[in-house]
Q: What sequence folds into this?
């Protein structure tokens, strides 16, 4: 169901950048991962939806009218596979909650990490792998642990190796993300606002989970795709609320 207030707001705004979270917004939620590590062997099975032709067509139509950014917690390698149909001019991919951007064919790493950070992550991983988890999702910067339930010991292990409290842990119902507190999807929004000299009001962002909070706040128009899980000024319902937003934006940007 479409939110009337949002439609009016879009109509009166001059939107130049639309930022979409991926899972639960443009594709159905639910990544299945099984991963096994032995002393000399590593195996991984990952299955995920990719963007449908219907939504890809709408994204392609929209990027003729404004910049489009897909901002996800996933790693870039999967994002490229999932959104292959919409890559090209005016499409920006942001991976691992803002840690890496693919922008005009160029990979940009906005924040540098040091050995200390990676050591910490590695030590946590060593202990977490013995817990009741489904496996780690391959990522370059953040540590993502898939599990059937919110395994509380994960928080204890993070506290143990991060007494300085530089890291944050986010549970989204299917996985934990462990990452620097200072890194968020908002950094992507702010970087794009700076680079293209946009006004905050010219940016709309939609997301559905806790890792989208800062991104929604950094945009002039923040939209929640799941009002039970994420508060925002506006909300959209429906199976894939990202498609509802695409329809509204296309309708109002002839
Ligand atoms: Mg999501």
A:
């Amino acid at each position: 169901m479409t939110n009337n207030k949002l439609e009016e707001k879009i109509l009166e705004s001059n939107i130049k950048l639309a930022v979409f979270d991926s899972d639960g917004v443009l594709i159905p939620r639910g990544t299945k991962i099984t991963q096994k590590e032995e002393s000399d062997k590593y195996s991984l099975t990952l299955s995920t939806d990719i963007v449908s032709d219907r939504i890809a067509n709408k994204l392609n139509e929209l990027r003729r009218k404004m910049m489009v950014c897909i901002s996800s917690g996933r790693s870039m390698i999967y994002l490229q596979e999932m959104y292959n149909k919409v890559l090209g001019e005016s499409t920006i991919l942001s991976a691992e909650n803002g840690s890496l951007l693919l922008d005009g064919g160029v990979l940009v790493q906005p924040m540098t990490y040091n050995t200390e950070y990676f050591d910490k992550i590695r030590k946590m991983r060593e202990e977490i792998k013995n817990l009741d988890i489904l496996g780690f999702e391959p990522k370059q910067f953040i540590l993502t642990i898939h599990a059937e339930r919110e395994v509380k010991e994960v928080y204890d292990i993070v506290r143990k190796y991060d007494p300085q409290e530089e890291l944050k842990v986010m549970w989204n119902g299917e996985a934990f993300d462990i990452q620097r507190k200072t890194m968020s999807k908002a950094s992507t929004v702010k970087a794009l606002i700076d680079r293209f000299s946009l006004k905050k009001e010219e940016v709309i962002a939609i997301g559905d989970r806790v890792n989208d909070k800062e991104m929604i706040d950094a945009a002039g128009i923040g939209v929640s795709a799941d009002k039970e899980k994420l508060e925002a000024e506006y909300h959209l319902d429906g199976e894939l609320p990202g498609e509802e937003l695409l329809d509204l934006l296309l309708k109002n940007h002839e």
